[in-house]
Design a protein that fits this description.
The chain contains 14 helices and 21 strands. It is α/β, with parallel strands linked by helices. A 6-stranded antiparallel barrel has the order 13-14-19-18-17-20. The chain has a 5-stranded parallel β-sheet with strand order 2-1-3-4-7, sandwiched between helices. A 4-stranded parallel β-sheet has the order 9-8-11-12. Strand 15 and strand 16 form a beta hairpin. Helix 2 runs parallel beside helix 3 and helix 7 crosses helix 9. The chain is elongated.
């Protein structure tokens, strides 16, 4: 289930075929490929196919035309045998960009299959391109099969995600909630390898913004929220209003700084210093915006969210491990979930945990079905992505100890893993993993290949 952003991915495209191959065989098939790629969602900056003319004029023309455009990925379409030098002459000026080395296939004429030796061209190119340090995905079209669009589009979306990550900004209210270690980050290696900037600010800024919010605005939105959500019981006076004020403060800060993701000090911050849980504010933030959020100053969680969000167009919600079982894990949250992953109505249960004041606990039912969970981690300056495909099922009846009675059943799913549970547990990289619905492993693996991130 992918809900990709409406903006089309910009890709460069250049086809190749030997000078002695009839030109119409090359042109016709490259034109067909371009039409399919456009239909699949690419915005192509294309140049006419290139042959190995001795003077290299066609290669020079292609470079000049492609250089006039900005694109995230270059599709190198091999439509027949082509000497390697002709291809390298075109792609060398763009070696900083990810590429798809795409080999086409021949066609059937009556009882005979006709080929232009496409894969002679790609196989002559693959190793030299790898040895020279090009970042690319090698995709071949099998004889008698259609163009492998899914594989090509996955890499193109991954390349576009890598570009977007370079300009991403994550807002971080406070620092190192609960003195956790697994939520920390190294700013230099993160910027060098993945790209996002993490910008810290004090919770005091949110409090100051809350103090300046007009009471009439708060009242109006609080009344709307009371009608919008399903409340299991009546909240205490002021609980909804506190959540609304915090939401408005966070949103103003997010919009002022242009944050693409947001995290915050939860237990040692908002709950301790402001006296209430931020769950209602975060639920409302997800009702009104598309920003990625995760609590507890979880830097790697926030970066993973951006990766998943850019790749799939989904909200990339966080879930937390509560229990493992033989075939998977019980995952849920003790605070909020975005409306996008809710099955039915957003349901609120005003409640308090431990010594913290009452908050608007989100107890909505979560969607089920095929899903992918992932988390980015690092050791030194080496980054790893842990991925597991699973099926989200309705959970067993359960509760977390510590909630004021009657204890709620938190938003959760039983995730039945497609792979080995014990092997997953041995490599687990934190309490939070990011969920997306559908099988998104190829997208994540393609992005990791571009960024130089190891997949485990």
């Amino acid at each position: 289930m992918n809900n990709h952003d409406t903006a089309r991915i910009r890709a460069g495209f250049v086809g190749f075929g030997e000078v002695n191959t009839p030109r119409e065989f090359i042109d016709k098939r490259c034109t067909s490929v371009m039409a399919q790629l456009k239909q699949a969602g690419l915005d192509l900056a294309a140049t006419a196919p290139v042959a190995d003319d001795p003077a290299g004029e066609q290669a020079a023309r292609a470079v000049a035309e492609l250089s006039q455009h900005d694109f995230s990925v270059l599709i190198v379409c091999i439509a027949g045998w082509i000497p390697t030098w002709a291809v390298l002459s075109v792609i060398e000026p763009f070696r900083h960009k990810p590429m798809v080395l795409l080999g086409l296939t021949g066609w059937q004429e009556g009882e005979r299959f006709v080929t232009t030796a496409d894969q002679a061209g790609t196989t002559a190119l693959r190793k030299p391109m790898a040895d020279m340090g090009y970042t690319f995905k090698y995709v071949v079209t099998l004889r008698g099969r259609s163009l492998p669009l899914e594989s090509v589009m996955s890499y193109c979306r991954a390349a576009d995600t890598a570009r977007r990550l370079r300009g991403a900004r994550i807002g971080m209210a406070g620092f190192r909630d609960m003195r956790l270690y697994g939520t920390l980050y190294d700013g230099v290696s993160l910027k060098a390898t993945i790209g996002p900037e993490i910008e810290h600010f004090d919770l005091l800024e949110l409090q100051q913004l809350m103090d300046g919010i007009d009471a009439a605005e708060v009242k109006q939105l609080a009344e709307e929220v009371s009608r919008r959500w399903v409340f299991r019981k009546e909240p205490q006076p002021g609980t909804v209003e506190s959540s609304v004020k915090l939401y408005m403060a966070i949103r103003r800060k997010v919009e002022e700084r242009g944050y693409d993701a947001f995290s915050y000090t939860d237990v040692d911050g908002i709950k301790k210093l402001m006296g209430f849980a931020p769950a209602g504010a975060m639920t409302l933030l997800h009702d009104e915006t598309t920003i990625c959020t995760v609590p507890e100053n979880d830097s790697m969680g926030a970066v993973t969210q951006l990766m998943v969000h850019y790749l799939t167009g989904q909200v990339a919600a966080y879930l937390e491990f509560y229990e493992f079982f033989e075939r998977g894990a019980l995952m849920g949250v003790p605070d909020y979930v975005p409306r996008e992953i809710v099955d039915g109505e957003v349901t609120i249960f005003p409640n308090a945990f431990g010594d913290f004041g009452e908050g608007l606990l989100n107890v909505s039912r979560l969607k089920t079905g095929p899903a992918t969970i992932a988390r980015l981690g690092y050791v030194g300056n080496r980054y790893r992505m842990h991925i597991m495909n699973a099926t989200a099922q309705d959970p067993v009846s359960w509760e977390e100890a510590g909630w004021a009675p009657p204890a709620p059943q938190l938003p959760s799913v039983d995730l039945v893993f497609d792979g080995d549970t014990a092997a997953f547990i041995e490599r687990v990289m934190g309490q939070h993993y990011i969920i997306s619905y559908g099988d998104n492993r190829m997208l994540l693996e393609d992005l990791c290949a571009i960024l130089g991130v190891e997949v485990i």
